[in-house]
Amino acid sequence: MRRGHPLVFDGAHAAAAAALAAGDAGARTYLAEHPELVDLVDCSDLGSAADVDTPADLPLLQDHGRDG
Prior knowledge:
Elements: H1 14-20, H2 28-33
């Protein structure tokens, strides 16, 4: 199972996670320091693994959901 998106966490942790965020790592550092907060959910069959952070990244999803 590949770790990554989607990521959901309680808003009470947002400020602390943002304070540790650097570059494209997002909440990775915060969650590594607080493994008790992490519950892995297998979402591998639900969609694309593309990392879409900005409108410029949307073409990464261009073929997602199309058959063939």
